[in-house]
Amino acid sequence: MIFNPEHECMDPELRKKFQLAHLKNLAETLYERVAFYRKKMDALGIKPRDIHSLRDIEKLPFTTKDDLRENYPRGLLAAPTDQIVEVHMSSGTTGKPVVDEYTRNDINIWRESMARTMAAAGCTKNDVVQNCYGYGLFTGGPGAHYGALTIGAEVLPMSSGNTARQLMVMQDFGSTMLTCTPSYALYMAEEAADAGIDLHKLPLGKGCFGAEPWSENMRKEIESRYGMKAYDIYGLTEIIGPGVSFECEAQNGLHINEDFFYPEIIDPETGRVLPDGEKGELVFTTLTKDGTPLLRYRTRDITYFMREPCSCGRTTVRMHRLFGRTDDMLIIRGVNVFPSQIEQALIEIEGTEPQYLIVVNRGETHLDEVELQVEVKKEFFSDETKDLEVLRNKIEGVMKSRLQIGLKVKLVEPKTIERSMGKAKRVIDNRKI
Ligand code: DLL
């Protein structure tokens, strides 16, 4: 279902006019109200009145995660504090959190974006949405909550964790839609199997999954374990939370809510805007936000744009599902490796679970050594050490040919890799560089 056909299916030329009008306004507001942006624009010798076309956005400065951290907690606020009604933060692993402050208008943008997202996955007011994204400073729980309320569905605000209770509520309240990280969806499915619950007998028919990298095969796994359709949804705290882009029933890329979030793809090395279809770093400008609007925010996420018409009728630009990040890229003995590449290779190998951990050490010889811990499917974990040895060799061979580096594979028993209720941790990098 298309939640807002007027906007989602708008003539792209008309949409561009709105985008330009908002961009001009935004540049004015930020120049007047946020010292950080005024300084940046002055340093580049650009004034808001120099913006005449959408392409002129390339003259405006970028914003980075470090800029946000340096301006913690409120240095980028563009609205009076009495207009702020809600705050979210993402912690990251180092340094200060990044903060998003929402005015009532910003919350409305979020509600609309998430309603579009969930409606595209088939959510209607007849649905019972089991929302197991975390509630709190994390945007996942509240975002899906707002989306479901806006559609008029019933929400079960479960938050993540307490899996036994999740499974009980799922059965007793007849949840029809699931929202959580893909890794938690798989974890719950395993627990359900152990508890003898047949998920196929439940009315769960669809789910919106995101907040962490996942592959096409993980999608298949979730779909077959639950007997549901699984949709990819994308977003980040800095821009609004979930609701930035989402899959429709065609599942051929994620439609960007580009009337709110103006997207660009740049070369991460040079900062130059790349033509459609070329892979690079995704950048967003929040066209209509009031609390903490951002100019050309560098997400570090890697994707490319797809502008061919979509069979669903939406005219918004789509982004390919993420390929990884410019910064979770591991550099091992000089070779760039993305955890998603390892996952993709692994999932094609019979006998393994989509559960793995990459441990990187710097050995005595100062060479990087990678241990890939892989869970073996219960039925494959036989006592025949010979069979396991064959599987181990096979994985090592596949990795060597795909990644151009050798790594050591350690097969572990089912369920030994720590499960996460939120975002899964796939890499432990012990190198001190
Ligand atoms: O993860 C917002 C969110 C919540 C999105 C619920 C989807 C569902 P942050 O914690 O700020 O916000 O993390 C944002 O997570 O830059 C991506 O690297 C990654 N990410 C988010 N969605 C996806 C996805 C939320 N569908 C960062 N696929 C982003 C891959 C994703 N990575």
Protein model, in words:
Helix 2 (12-33) crosses helix 3. The radius of gyration is 22 Å and the shape is globular. The mean pLDDT is 93. Strand 19, helix 11 (385-403) and strand 20 (408-412) form a beta-alpha-beta unit. Helix content is 31%, strand content 25%. The strands form five sheets. Strands 4-3-5-6-7-8-9-14-13 form a nine-stranded mixed sheet, sandwiched between helices. The protein contains eleven helices and 21 strands. With 433 residues, the protein is α/β, with parallel strands linked by helices. It has two domains: 1-325, ANL, N-terminal domain (Rossmann fold, 3-Layer(aba) Sandwich), CATH 3.40.50; 330-429, 2-Layer Sandwich (GMP Synthetase, Chain A, domain 3). The site of 5'-O-[hydroxy(phenylacetyl)phosphoryl]adenosine has 21 residues, from helix 6, strand 7, strand 8 and strand 12.
Descriptors:
GMP Synthetase, Chain A, domain 3; Rossmann fold; 9-stranded mixed sheet; 433 residues; 11 helices; 2 domains; single chain; binds 5'-O-[hydroxy(phenylacetyl)phosphoryl]adenosine
CATH fold descriptor of the largest domain: Rossmann fold
The count of domains is 2
Q: Structural class of the helices, strands and pairings?
A: alpha/beta
Q: Name the poorly predicted regions.
A: none
Number of helices: 11
